[in-house]
Structure formats: structure tokens, C-alpha cells
Design a protein that fits this description.
four-stranded antiparallel β-sheet, 7 helices, 2 domains, Jelly Rolls, alpha+beta, homodimer, DNA-binding, 24% strand
DNA sequence: ATATTTCTGTTGTATTTACAACAAAAAGAG
DNA sequence: CTCTTTTTGTTGTAAATACAACAGAAATAT
């Protein structure tokens, strides 16, 4: 695990915590890690998990496939980001979605039970980690809310505008690249890929935007 | 605020904390409360808030209206539940949605900054509240995820089935009532009300379910 | 009790979407 | 480089949805 200290110290979970203390906590957290090949599942809908996951390298999609094979991509996880934390606290429910590696990945697993059950006043950085987790959860919440706003739009065009203008805002630029190919973007916005491609072309013809592969410019 | 102790002690935020300690904390939290008439806004999209909100009585909808007047209801808040907590922690962003009273309501406001900035090991119940907040946030997250799953469905019928069967699961019964009228349910599922009414009628004719006002039975 | 307002279901039409099929372009494998 | 696979854009058609208008039922106000 020590070879991943660089990435760990840059995570939201360990923000503001010294290398030394991070190392100390890896024991408290029963830290383990595991490699996943592209396409492998870290967890699946219906399972119960008791560890939070931190992506050390690679890329992971949180998604959910329904009975008819329609895929819905909830979010993309990048190296250094956390996932599964909403299910890993005691007394939780079955996981509602899949986590799948979209490239070869390494995932760390941390068990928070000790942090939560043992009096956390014991050491200051236990409280710090819990506070970090709290703040990370509020970020997750706001991201989910933002995605809800995108896919609550009634038409494909409105969904695209909602998503793309939000991306422009995040990147503080009218030109940006997105982490999805066309099929993935369609799965993210819950629309049909070909219809979406068609709508993008129309919007380009109308002079609303230009794009080349994953690079978009709003006009 | 003391007249609301009964409801406060039953909130997730103060779960497991004695009456005495709750009273003590109301000071730390700079607790205030305010009455809202039906239709009044507790906060609006774009505002910045620094207090979490706890509904002491009444009913609140978290929702978001777009430029064209389409409403999207994110969630219903019942007495004893919390809202706004994802925006009330330090360094947050503008609120993404409105909170509006759907009946005359009383809302308590708590400022968490002291809890978060002053070393929380100072008193054990500070840590307890933060842990409660953490758990509440994971619940919120799972609820948002569940709603995402509902509205990611491609057709009105699938959305209805997804939502109604989840309600049946939550109530552990095929018969249950929902907290929305038809327009509100349509706004919650991001579909047109009349089209949804139509679909409900079709489903009833096909023997999938029966309903009377807000009471549904899945068959 | 009566009048007014809100809620719900129904219908028809125009718009939008999903779906399928296909060709060109791009990416990847051997 | 050549062949294969994947990705993307395009088109036509069937299906689903939004929208508007309206009538009856239910709730609320006077």
C-alpha cells in the first residue's frame, strides 16, 4: 500500500492528514487493495459491502443495468476518488448499482467500522477523517442532484444543453472534453445514442456548438 | 425551541443523544426557528446557506423549476427530517434547488460551523452528531440514487413501475399511499401529468394495479 | 347549500424519441 | 500495412410523449 501514498495523500478522505498519520490509520482501516482488469466488477447491485473504495489508479463507472439491458451510468470515478461510501456504513442496505472498471484499475478498500464505533475522540485524526468523509458525501450529494437536474429535462436537446453547459461551468471554459464516448454519454443522460448523435448534429448545424470526438465548444 | 424537543429527539441528527445534551447543543448550533406559510420558500436556487434545516412540523418539497416552467420535484421532506445539509458545510456552492413549504410549516436552523471547526473531541456528543449527520447523508445519497434509477427509465410506464414497486417494498405491502397528487407525481417522475394519468388508466385496465386517489395496490 | 377552485381522467394531434439498419471513419490487432 | 472491430453519424419508421383542450369529480370557500 505504501507505493500508493502519493495518491492517498491527495484524496479527499485523507485531506489535511500527515503521511505519518495516514500510514498509522491504514491499520485502523484494515486497508487492503486489489487489481481489476478492464470490464471487471468491483461490486454489483444487490451485494452488501462494508468497506469504502478508493480508486488508486484507472477508471471506474458507477452504473446500473435494468432487466431489458438498458444501461444507466450514474457517474465516472477517477483516480483518487472514493466510491461505495454510501453503502459501507453500518446498517446499510444492498448496493443499488454496479461498479465496473473501464480500464485496468487498482482499488483500495477501507473498513470504517472501527473509526465509527470506537470513541473517535481517541485520536484527533479519526475525527478528521470522519469530517473529510462528511464533506465528501456532501459533494457526492450535490453531484447526484446536478445529474438529477440534467436528466429531469424533458427533451434530448435540453438534457445535452444542461449537461454541456454545466461542464463548461466546471471547466471555466467554453471548450472542454468530456469523459464519455457517445454511447456512454447517452447512457449517462438516459437517451438513445443515435437520437442523441442526431440531435448533436442538428445543434452543430444551428451553430450552437462544435465538437470533435470528446472535445466540445459551446458558441 | 423547547416545545419542539419531542420532535428533535426523534430526528436522525440527534439520535442517541440525551434530552439534556440536545438542549446543551442548541446553543452550540446557534439554533433558531421560523414559521413558513404554505407556498413560502425556505431557500431558493442560487442562494448560499450556512445552516442545516430540520422540519419541525408541516411538509416541504425540494424542487427545481427550469427556465420554461417545468418543475422537477426532488424529494418530499416530512416532519423530523433534515434538508439543505449538503450545502451548509463550509466551502459549499450555491444551492441547486428550491425548498418550498407545501403546508404551513416550522423549520429549525442549525449552524454546524462550530461543531466542525472547534476540535470535536471537546465533547463526545459533538462527535455523535457528526456521525449522525454522516449516516443521514448516506441515506440521502441512497435515496437520490434510487430516484435516479426511477427517472432513468425510458418510458412513463417503466418509471411508474419502478417508483410504485419501490414504494411497495418500502411499505412492505402491495397496498400503500403516496405523498404526491397526480401533478406532483408527474413532476417527481419528470413526465407529463395527463400522459401519466393515461398510462395509469391503461395499467389499471390491464389488471396491473388499482388506485383510488393517493392509494395504490399492485396486483 | 351553493359557488368556486382544484384535481383527475380522457381524447386528438403534433412533436419527439426509440429502434433498427447501415455506411463511413477511426481505432486496434495481427 | 492489412484486416477486424469499434465508434459515430445518418435515415426512415413505429412507438411514445408532450401539449392543449375539456368535462366530470372532488375539495374548498362563501
Amino acid at each position: 500500500m505504501k507505493k500508493y501514498m502519493d495518491i492517498l495523500k491527495r484524496t479527499k478522505l485523507f485531506s489535511g492528514i500527515s503521511d505519518e498519520n495516514i500510514k498509522a490509520m491504514l491499520g485502523c482501516l484494515s486497508a487492503t487493495h486489489k487489481d481489476f482488469k478492464k470490464g471487471e466488477y468491483i461490486f454489483r447491485q444487490g451485494e452488501y459491502i462494508d468497506t469504502i473504495c478508493v480508486l488508486l489508479s484507472g477508471s471506474v463507472h458507477i452504473q446500473s443495468d435494468d432487466y431489458w439491458g438498458n444501461r444507466s451510468i450514474i457517474s465516472e470515478v477517477c483516480a483518487g476518488e472514493m466510491f461505495g461510501e454510501s453503502y459501507a456504513v453500518h446498517g446499510s442496505t444492498a448496493v443499488l448499482n454496479d461498479a465496473v472498471a473501464t480500464t485496468d484499475s487498482v482499488v483500495a478498500f477501507f473498513n470504517l467500522n472501527k473509526l465509527m464505533t470506537v470513541c473517535s475522540s481517541a485520536c484527533a485524526f479519526h475525527s478528521a477523517v470522519i469530517q473529510n468523509l462528511l464533506i465528501a458525501l456532501t459533494h457526492k450529494n450535490r453531484n447526484l442532484m446536478q445529474k438529477l437536474i440534467h436528466i429531469s429535462k424533458r427533451t434530448t436537446r435540453e438534457k445535452l444543453i444542461s449537461y454541456l453547459s454545466n461542464q463548461a461551468k466546471i471547466n471555466s471554459s467554453n471548450s472542454f472534453s468530456i469523459p464519455f464516448n457517445r454511447q456512454q454519454l447517452a447512457d449517462f443522460l438516459s437517451v438513445d445514442r443515435s437520437a442523441m448523435s442526431n440531435e448533436l448534429s442538428k445543434m452543430r448545424n444551428e451553430g450552437l456548438l462544435t465538437f470533435d470526438k470528446n472535445n466540445f465548444t459551446l458558441l
